[in-house]
Every structure is written in C-alpha cells, then in structure tokens.
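FORM 7B: Structural annotation worksheet

SECTION A. Query
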Amino acid sequence: MTQVNDTTSMELKEGEEILFQEGGSHYHNYVAVGGTLTLTNKALYFESCPGARYPHHQCIDLKIIKGAEFFKTMFITPNGLAILLSDGGMENYIVDDRKGWKSRIMQMVEKTEPVTR
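SECTION B. Predicted structure
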C-alpha cells in the first residue's frame, strides 16, 4: 500500500530541486492548516506555518500521484486542489492558482515511473 509520509521537515534528497513554491493550506483532520506547498522534481511537500494549531509536514512522492482534481471550498470558492493517490487516498489543498499547480504537478508526474503493485 502506498502512503503519504509525514515528515519532521522538508529535506531535499540528492538530485532534488525546488520547481515551484507558494503559500497554501492543507486539510488536516478536517481543518485547513496554513503553510507552504512546494513542488520538486521528486515530490510534493507541505509544511505548516510555525505556530499553527495543527502543525505538520507532509511529503507525497510523485510516483504515487494518480491525478489531480478541482473542488470549491465551502462549495463556493474555486480554490481547492485534490491530489489523488494510487492507493485510493486523497489529499486536499487550498491554493491561489489551482490550474497552474495541477498543470505543474501532472507534468512532473508524467516524467516519473509510477509505483507498480
């Protein structure tokens, strides 16, 4: 089973480089937690802001990303981005430019070898 790794901080691996980074929020335990979303050539990272009520860090290997879909927060605001995972899971984010994020993420996913079961 594939999974999202909870990390203590964003640590780039050898050969990994930041492609895009922007403030955003991650839905964690049904609460939108503010922080920074970072796309690298190997993973999608989220780091909550210092002092966040629900501090957490997350790393999603691009190999387990199956797709990305849009949603409206509170069924009103078109700023939601759902990352679909190969194990059927989903991670939800709030970003300003969801079309740009989806495009960049999916371009990088297409360049990676997917996880085989």
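SECTION C. Observations
Strands lie at 5-7, 18-28, 31-40, 43-48, 57-61, 65-73, 77-85, 90-94. The CA atoms of residues 19 and 75 lie 30 Å apart.

SECTION D. Sign-off
Analyst initials: ____
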